[in-house]
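Need a sequence for this fold. Nothing fancy.
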């Protein structure tokens, strides 16, 4: 649940912010894949979404769905396969299209797990041309992307390597699928992705893992859900940490990170950044969030009962309440 962003929206504090989201592997399988809905919609009309998928039919379906809606944001779905370079590649199309990859399925391994072969096993292959996110952004004149979501079945590191320029320009948050075992042959694993993103200043905030049990086992643990095979990893920039990309330290970027953190379910980090902006730059009304902090914390009855004034964060921002 978002804590601060609704108040920010109501007070007009988001009017000067424009959020650009890039969704690589944008096939819409559930409501969670619809970035124009939910909390992200609070940025509308200052919201731009670029969706990419190697499946042209999936992009066409997404565009057709958008035409039926009276949306108040910008959203485009582009039938491109993104990778680490502009080159000819083989796309391994699996029995369920959502598991298709630039890496071949590791069938001897996935056959050992329940409910994977019918999803991940190979159906057919096709030759495609990949391009890079950097090349797309250069062609379209896109200078920055704020939030990057990647789900390309083992090729996430390839997409990130093809986005090194845009990463250096200040991508603020990333949600990427990662694998912990070779579901696809010779694919990069979580450790490879993690090392690359840490090298670009990102901090890992959370993992939401997925588990599978062995296909031949009639038993399963009540304690463990099976083997952790893949998951979503959530990364954010830390503008008040050490060795930070100077671009990320821009005040407007810090506010964006706070908003993204709140949407992703890290309200403690959002609060830390809003407090930082208020205490250090609150003499400028644009970055004084004392009122928003108090109003948002007042949603929690236990905090109110114990006395908001007893909270260190509130004590710290009290001098800025009337500024």
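Here you go.
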């Amino acid at each position: 649940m978002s804590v601060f962003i609704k108040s920010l929206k109501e007070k007009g504090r988001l009017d000067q912010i424009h959020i650009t989201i890039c969704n690589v592997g944008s096939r819409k399988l559930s409501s969670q894949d619809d970035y124009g809905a939910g909390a992200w919609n609070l940025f509308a009309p200052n919201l731009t979404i670029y969706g990419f998928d190697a499946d042209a039919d999936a992009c066409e379906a997404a565009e057709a769905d958008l035409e039926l809606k009276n949306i108040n944001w910008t959203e485009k779905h582009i039938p491109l396969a993104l990778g680490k370079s502009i080159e000819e590649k083989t796309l391994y199309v699996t029995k369920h299209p959502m598991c298709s990859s630039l890496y071949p399925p590791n069938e001897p391994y996935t056959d050992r797990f329940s409910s994977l072969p019918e999803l991940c096993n190979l159906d057919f292959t096709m030759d495609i041309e990949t391009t890079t996110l950097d090349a797309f952004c250069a062609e379209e004149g896109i200078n920055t992307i704020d939030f990057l979501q990647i789900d390309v079945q083992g090729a996430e590191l390839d997409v990130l390597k093809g986005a090194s320029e845009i990463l250096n320009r200040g991508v603020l948050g990333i949600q990427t699928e990662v694998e912990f075992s070779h579901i696809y042959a010779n694919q990069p694993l979580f450790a490879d992705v993690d090392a690359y993103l840490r090298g670009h200043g990102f901090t890992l905030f959370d993992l939401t893992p997925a588990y599978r049990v062995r296909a031949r086992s009639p038993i399963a643990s009540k304690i463990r859900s099976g083997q952790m095979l893949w998951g979503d990893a959530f990364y954010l920039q830390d503008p008040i940490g050490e060795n930070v990309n100077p671009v990320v330290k821009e005040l407007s970027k810090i506010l964006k990170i706070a908003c993204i953190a709140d949407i992703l379910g890290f309200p403690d980090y959002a609060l830390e950044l809003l407090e930082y902006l208020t205490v250090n730059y609150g003499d400028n009304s644009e970055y004084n969030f004392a009122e928003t902090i108090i109003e948002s914390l007042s949603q929690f009855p236990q905090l109110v009962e114990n006395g908001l004034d007893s909270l260190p964060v509130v004590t710290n921002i009290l001098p800025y309440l009337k500024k």
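For context: The radius of gyration is 21 Å.
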